[in-house]
Amino acid sequence: MTAGARGTRGRGAARRKSLAVSTALVLAVATAVWSGQPGSASGAPAAVQPLGVPFLPSPDPLRVTIDSMVAVSLTVDKNVTIRLSDGTTRVTNQYTFTKLKIRSHMNVVQKANGHTVTIDVPDEGSLGGYDSAGKPETTTMWGNITNVCLRVLVKICGVQGLLDFFGSIIPLTAGAEDFAGDIYAIRTVDDHAALDSTDNPVHLPGTITVTSP
User: Fold this and answer.
1) Cα torsion angle, 69, 73, 77, 78, sign
2) What are the domain boundaries of the chain?
3) pLDDT at 21 over 70
4) DSSP for 10-56?
5) How confident is residue 68, by pLDDT bands cut at 50, 70 and 90?
6) CA dist., res. 28 & res. 102, Å (int)
7) How far, in Å, CA of 70 to CA of 137, rounded?
8) How far apart are CA 166 and CA 4, in angstroms?
């Protein structure tokens, strides 16, 4: 192998790693901050839900875990159809949090195209707290939350168990633990932002690592 060939291969690997990191960042933290409430699907129940972001999520979901988190509330919409980047659709769930903050350790892993991308936030972070005007921001996840626990006299785990206990709006002001989910996309929105707002609702201080076989 010539030096030129090695250099070309090295640059190609670097580009692939860069692309993988960019993809994970876009899907994991949904960096676009949008003004106003995003539109919702209309028509038949099978209509594709517009995600309100300039990309389609990967068919390989993110594995998201959070040791401890807090939010004002969580609402759940079931049987929502979303379109993925390979042109297919999935019927999944839509979870909407208000003022979602990470208290302790968020980990996001995506395996796609031969790469594993890991975003690790060891301590506190934010996926939508308050904006500079003191208004709460909204975080939406599409996918399946496989576990989340809330202590209300006793420890209640699982989204369905929380819905059965609280009804359609689950209060998370006391905090939640042991969050785990397979998530296709996460979007954080400042519902009150002006068009020229520079508020960034996403703050995830941590590390990004990329590994390949």
Assistant:
1) positive
2) 3-33+45-211
3) no
4) HHHHHHHHHHHHHHHHHHHH-----BSPPP---SSTTSBPP--SSS-
5) very high
6) 14
7) 13
8) 64
